[in-house]
Amino acid sequence: MEATTGSTVRIVGLTRQFRTGAERLTAVDDVSLEIAAGSVVALTGPSGSGKSTLLHLIGAIEQADSGTITVDDVEITALRRTALARYRQRVGFVFQRYHLLPALTVLDNVIAPVLPQRGRADHATRARELLDAVGLGGRERAMPTQLSGGEQQRVAIARALMGAPGLLLADEPTGNLDSTTSAQILDLLLDLRERHGMTILLATHERSIAARCDRLVRLGDGSLVEDLDLTDGEDPADTYERAARLRL
Ligand SMILES: Nc1ncnc2c1ncn2[C@@H]1O[C@H](COP(=O)(O)OP(=O)(O)OP(=O)(O)O)[C@@H](O)[C@H]1O
Ligand SMILES: [Mg+2]
To answer: Which residues are in the ABC transporter domain (predicted)?
Structure first.
């Protein structure tokens, strides 16, 4: 796999409202945030605090009402359709429920995002390399239902890496997994970051996961309420202590 350079993300005054009947709900409320290239950031906060909405805005799945998002010097909040579609292909997205296509093999699930593009043989080669990288070499022809939850999430991660993203957005990627499997998925993400330098923004409710990230950003009612640097020279092995200090 080729090495990529992690993206830098700059968010300024980002706001997203939803209309529910006569009410207006501000899901993301004037958030400003700068994410360094190659960092792994945990996005935490109670249910409904705006984590998924923020990830959807950064991934350009949803549109902001106001504010800007700039990824690697491109203001994505100002992009039009074609450029936006191109940007979306360059961002990796991993979801809590994997979202694999049940009728496709593991290999075809990984290839699926780039199917409209030419070069099928190249795609298959790359997908095989990615499946190897996530520890699923040899399982290419399996169907998703034949895999465990952790294995399905590995397929989803391989799929997210197909476009060699500089930015990986993960919405509670370990939310459906037991703690051992969750830790393994995080090992995998941290290892991918080491090898490819990508930037990872990961929404999570789990202390043990957040504690292993470089930085913790907490949302409350759509606003940024806490921003902690977790790379402050502490023994990185001492994650339990660190986790205990994090009120997730
Ligand atoms: N499409 C939508 N229409 C209306 N309201 C929405 C929509 N999407 C999200 N919301 C509301 O916006 C707020 C933020 O939701 P969001 O899904 O971003 O929270 P979250 O932090 O990801 O929560 P969870 O931890 O439960 O996943 C919530 O109050 C939610 O009900
Ligand atoms: Mg959510």
So the answer is: 9-246
pLDDT value for 32:
98
Residue 50 Cβ contacting ligand 1 at under 6 Å: yes
What's the pLDDT tens digit per position in 12-55? 999 999 998 889 999 999 999 999 999 999 999 999 999 999 99
Structural contact between residues 1 and 133, judged by C-beta atoms closer than 8 angstroms: yes
Q: Which ligand 1 atom sits closest to the C-alpha of 222?
A: 14
Domains in the chain (CATH in brackets) are: 9-90+165-245 (3.40.50.300), 103-163 (no CATH)
Distance 66 CA to ligand 2 centre (A): 21
Contact 11, 69 (CB under 8 A): yes
Query: Which residues are close to ligand 2, an ion, with C-beta < 5 A?
Result: 51-52
Query: Which residue's CA is minimally distant from atom 19 of ligand 1?
Result: 48
The total of other beta-carbon atoms located within 10 Å of residue 187's CB is 12
For residues 236 and 122, what is the distance between their CA atoms, to the nearest angstrom? 39
